[in-house]
Amino acid sequence: MPTLSERDHAVLWHPYTQMQTAPLPIAIVKGEGSWLIGEDGTRYLDAISSWWVNLHGHAHPRITARVSEQLRTLEHVLFAGFTHPTAVELAEQLLALLPASQARVFYSDNGSTAVEVALKMVLQYFHNLGQPERRTFICFRNSYHGDTFGAMAVSARGAFTEPFWPMLFDVEFLDVPVPGRETEVLAQLDALLQRPDVAGFIFEPLVLGTAGMVMYEPEVLSEMLRRCHAAGVLCIADEVMTGFGRTGPLFASELLSEQPDMMCFSKGLTGGTLAMGLTTCAAPIYDAFLSDDKMRALFHGHSYTANPVACAAALASLELTRADACTEQRQRIAAAHAAFQAEIAGQPGIRAVRHRGTILAVEYDPGEGTSYFSRLRDAFYQLALDHHVVLRPLGNVVYLLPPYCTTDEELDLLYAVLRKMRELVLNFTPAPNLPHILHD
Prior knowledge:
Layout: H1 4-11, E1 28-32, E2 35-38, E3 43-46, H2 49-52, H3 61-71, H4 85-97, E4 104-108, H5 111-128, E5 136-140, H6 149-153, E6 172-174, H7 182-192, E7 198-203, E8 207-208, E9 214-215, H8 218-230, E10 234-238, E11 262-265, E12 277-281, H9 283-287, H10 308-322, H11 324-344, E13 350-356, E14 359-364, H12 376-386, E15 389-390, E16 397-400, H13 408-426
Parallel strand pairs: 3-15, 5-6, 5-7, 7-10, 10-11
Antiparallel strand pairs: 1-2, 2-3, 4-12, 8-9, 11-12, 13-14, 14-16
InterPro entries: Aminotrans_3 (IPR005814), Aminotrans_3_PPA_site (IPR049704), BioA (IPR005815), PyrdxlP-dep_Trfase (IPR015424), PyrdxlP-dep_Trfase_major (IPR015421), PyrdxlP-dep_Trfase_small (IPR015422)
Binding site for substrate: 51, 144, 267, 301, 392
Subunit structure: Homodimer.
């Protein structure tokens, strides 16, 4: 009998995978807490929350009970002209927690579509106001906002999007205002804001995830938002990764003194249980679509918009996230990350160590440029698997983003793997001229 991995290989096509050369996928049949359990019984520590989605551990009983209850009540209803309790309750609870600038919730089904909704809202907002010439977006260089066409357009131009470049609308890129470059980036922004066609600024607040967990400070981002608002430019916070406690507070935007006009969510929204996206906006944006003219409405939707089961999972996850026990878990992980950062930073083979909240990134120094295509990537990946740890290195950058239930003993295993990676780097022979791109 063929294994599950062999059956998969005969019929499936996996994301971000060269199917001709990739090894057979690892078959996972069960999840418990921070662990994934393979078909052969092998246990793997999920150090990246299964692509950043899992907040509270796999198969969490509180979330599964709420999902089961909802399935027995209402599994789905169209959301045009209809509503249901979990959609209303989730929107009410989220808006009470988000910055006061947010007034309305629009549901979608993943992070890319949450971004697409925001981009379309911005463009039609100015169209409805009689300013259709305002259609240019400002983005950070090396940013990532998704894989649909609008989301790709406001993301980095690189090897993964190259086949589609002719189809992407033009945007203006800013350098990331990492410590020491704030003044330079503010000057770049000021120059762009002189243009009359700028409509929006979209950003990953404080942490650019697939750029290699590149981090910058809330003070400079707040100043950027102030300057955008003074120029009438709308600001979109893409909190698909940073939302729901990853950076410390519930939302990275809580650390800003100037608030965004729109926010995008997915990933941890349902605790990693079901696919769901969500975009919020300020009242003036929503008001610009109100009219006796039906053509001023936002013509966007999805078959599974505001799916009741996904909303139920999100409500259960949000309840867990707001609990004092979860706050203590996040603080414990953050403290452990900080201690490990202090230990390893500056050691041979280490270029940089970045840490915010429950996110830790180690940028190893192989003697060549930082690149998603670093030959270290596969070696790091296999080393982690050999120690029963699931990591997804961004080339020579390795990050930890574990579920909040991860114990101190489990964190120690992750740090031990990172130390072994440093030993591997010290014996690495570099290769020149790799593409400088980080993306996943």
